[in-house]
Design goal:
37% strand, 15% helix, 2 helices
């Protein structure tokens, strides 16, 4: 699986810059709180089994703790309440960590209740000019079904990236 993702990233890099203009993209479908979302495959660095979450001092609803993936400390974030879902969750057999790397090099992980491993083709719908809110979902049509597209960088503030970096440096 992890060998396929770099190839998908290279193919999709030129598409990412012009999302929403009707171009075909590759998506993972995942669920949080029984609600299905799409996430561009180019955004996902890795999909991992859940590992032990290490608590951190002054943990918040946003930062749940950190995990150690092959010697790399990665903060685990929880965007559920920000996207209108119940913030609490239980790790189940189908739960997976989605790992992301931002342009700044910062890495974060987010827990999904389940993920469909098959990459699916979809088209991101154009955004209407009046719907350009910073924290809103674009929609993608995948197999004739509309899914909200979680673009993780749209839901994290710049100062939060700095806080995540500080958390990692403390380990």
């Amino acid at each position: 699986m992890s060998q396929i993702l770099p190839l998908i990233k290279r193919i999709a890099q030129n598409v990412r810059e012009k999302s929403g203009d009707g171009r075909l993209e590759k998506f993972f479908i995942f669920k949080m709180a029984r609600k299905a979302f799409a996430i561009p495959a180019v955004d996902v660095e890795e999909v991992s089994m859940p590992v032990s979450l290490i608590d951190i001092p002054q943990r918040s609803d946003f930062i749940k703790g950190v995990v150690n993936i092959r010697g790399i400390v990665i903060p685990v974030i929880n965007l559920r309440s920000r996207i209108g879902l119940e913030a609490d969750y239980q790790i189940e057999d189908g739960s997976r960590l989605l790992l992301f790397t931002f342009k700044s090099g910062a890495q974060v992980a987010m827990m999904a209740d389940e993920i469909e491993y098959r990459l699916r083709d979809g088209v991101v719908e154009p955004v209407a000019p009046e719907k350009t809110e910073e924290h809103s979902f674009r929609m993608a049509v995948i197999d004739h079904v509309r899914y909200p597209v979680l673009m993780i960088d749209m839901w994290i503030e710049k100062n939060e990236l700095e806080i995540l970096h500080t958390v990692v440096e403390s380990f």
